[in-house]
Amino acid sequence: MKPLLAFVSLAALPSLLWSVDITEGEMAGYLFAPAEKVPEEFNGGFSLYAAAWPLVGTYPGHRFQTGLCGTWMHPQWSEAEKPKEKCYTDIEGGLGWWRDTHFPTITPKFIMGGVGPNFSVIANGPGYGAGTWEKPRGQYGVAQLSPWLLMPLDGLNLKQGTSGELFGYGYLPLPLTNKKSTTAGKNVPTGNQCWTLFLSTGNFKGPVAFFTPFFWSQALIEHPEWTGKLLDSCPAGPNKPIQMETQHVPAILTDKQARVAPTRFPIGADGTSTVLHRLTAYKKEALWEDVQRWFEGGAAADGKIKPEAAAIHTFRSGGGSNWSIYPPGTKRDDKTPLAWNAFATSFTPNPITFGYQWNAQLTGREGSLVVLPEYFQLGTNPRGKPLWQVMDAKQGPADAKLTQHRFETPQEKPQEARTTPEDANSCWKKPGPVAGPFKAQLGDGSTVTYYWYRFADQPAMLNADLTPEEREQVQQRVEKLHRAWTKDRAYLTPPDLGTLASIDPALILTPPPGLEIGYVPIATRQELEK
């Protein structure tokens, strides 16, 4: 197949400027990272290292929403097990920017992104989810596990200035709770898979927080036919889509030309970009069996993931992009793609790493970042389909309206505080915290107010459909973890290349004296203090 046209020389364009008005639009779509499949028995979670970087140079306002490279972990269903009616559910969080982010910067944040059946509930972290406090739809779905890392209400902050370092994360199930034969008093069961977020960063390593099994199983009250098919009890499909989902990067258009807000990728000394590394799938016994024996009175589990229970996906070149540029309201089939392959070529410097090589004539450099082409001319691909082709940046576009536009941060309403209930009778106050308030000043300009709670008394555990006795049993198990699984050693296998990204240092905590074991920090407010 012939390569797509690399650029359109402006010498071939009419000298007369277009007189049409500029239309606001967007660039959106997916970049694809093809990975080879692993055997289906590796259905006990995953981990990966994703590059973290500022995709745009100027924050474009709250319409901006895009993820960096990540995945979607769905339940593993055979064709016979697949529910007859729609039942979309997964863990799809990762690095990025979201429209509901209150305190954004050009540095990405991380959210957990648990999605209950058909988006009925969404949990992004402790105290952060869908709905309102009057009608919560996921705010209580994640329980804090680590005593050394504070999870803000607005997503987990990376260190400001992160630019291409690798952020390691993944989910493995832990048997922190027991199976239940009933759910919220109804005759449907809840499993005991506590899908736990593990991080591998420059200043924190280990388990952070977990989705309570009730977050998934509460849907069974109205849909008992889904019993055994949700992530409280169902294994996870190991062969997941690996993509970068972009929902909105600002663009402007005339009838024949387009300009996209400057978009960047990290670039190394060799001129290439590493965006994904060491995508791994696990068998459930990678941690589960040793931890289960430990909780039943056996020897302490050291938290080391068994290498024989892990399978590393290999990447292959290709995958490409369906990034498109279009005005608002454009139907899916009418969106015009841009000529990604004209300036970007995917490659695998080694079998477990995926990245891009760049056309030096059509891209620019900005320190440790490569800047993608901004200007595009409407043309066609070899099959005669519309295609946004790269314009020769050295000559500039024919329409001065495009060059005169400035992509700037718009004037928006002041960012509202993220809050939690203040009612003295709420689960935030009864039984309530044991120490606080404390404050952390974050790199995004916000201040987080937090308290220390006994693990079993944190709001998420009080809303996990557990009896006081069941919560106390989990408390004892978590105290074992706090004593043995410290934050200063590796859990996920370290990367073979690159540098680890760091979390905002203000979020790395030392528990107060006497609260080192069995207590966790819980954010209750996040705001821009005057």
Give a quick set of tags describing it.
530 residues, mainly beta, twelve-stranded antiparallel sheet, nine-stranded antiparallel sheet, globular, disordered N terminus
What are the SSEs and their pairings?
Blueprint: E1 23-32, E2 46-52, E3 65-67, E4 70-71, E5 90-91, E6 94-97, E7 109-111, E8 114-115, E9 122-125, E10 128-131, E11 136-137, E12 142-144, E13 156-157, E14 165-174, E15 194-200, E16 205-211, H1 213-217, E17 242-253, E18 257-260, E19 264-266, E20 272-282, H2 288-295, E21 310-312, E22 324-326, E23 336-337, E24 344-350, E25 353-358, E26 364-366, E27 369-371, E28 375-380, E29 386-390, H3 400-404, E30 418-419, E31 435-441, E32 447-454, H4 459-462, H5 468-484, E33 519-527
Antiparallel strand pairs: 1-17, 1-22, 2-14, 2-20, 3-6, 3-17, 4-17, 5-8, 6-7, 7-13, 8-9, 9-10, 10-11, 12-16, 14-15, 15-16, 17-18, 18-28, 19-27, 20-21, 20-25, 22-23, 24-25, 26-27, 28-29, 30-33, 31-32, 32-33
